[in-house]
Design goal:
Number of helices: 6
Helix content: 25-40%
CATH class: Alpha Beta
Largest sheet: 5 strands, parallel
Order of helices and strands: HEEHHEHEEEEHEHE
Low-confidence stretches: none
Radius of gyration: 15 Å
Number of strands: 9
Shape: globular
Number of domains: 1
Strand order of the largest sheet: 4-3-7-8-9
CATH topology: Rossmann fold
Amino acid sequence: MTPDELKTLIRDVPDFPKPGIMFRDVTTLIGHGPGFAAAVGHLAELARNIGAGSIAGIEARGFIFGASVAARLGLPFVPVRKPGKLPVPVLAMDYALEYGSDTLEVDPGAIAQGERVVVIDDLIATGGTAHAAVKLLREAGADVGHALFLVDLPDLGGADRLRDEGVAVEALIGFPGH
């Protein structure tokens, strides 16, 4: 399936999580076997061409796509977790959200110094979470120069925010607006 065909599998949910927001629900794509396989295949090809040494996925839907890409390529998978989920000493990064803050954690032992890590997530909007993940992985010793997403909402500027940090960004699908 082409990216344009995959785009038709993403459900639009108006006014979620608040009025005026058009939520792009990728669970309908994940629930479509051929579509999910095609999306993973496209992301895996991009990661292969980049020369990924490992794949980092951001909790939660980044785990679905990232782990699938890592398995397809036979690469290690590095989970970027929400707080309190890893049973070992972690590196943590606090970051600002539109309404509040959050924290990401990673096991520094899961990353070899200088390892070429490609970050994968389902969607990039404002880029706050992806930006924090990149900073955290770099702090752990990773060489993070690329991030891949199923969906980009370019009007929200997240991809540009990563590019400003020296991260090349690619997405299979773009949607205008919020």
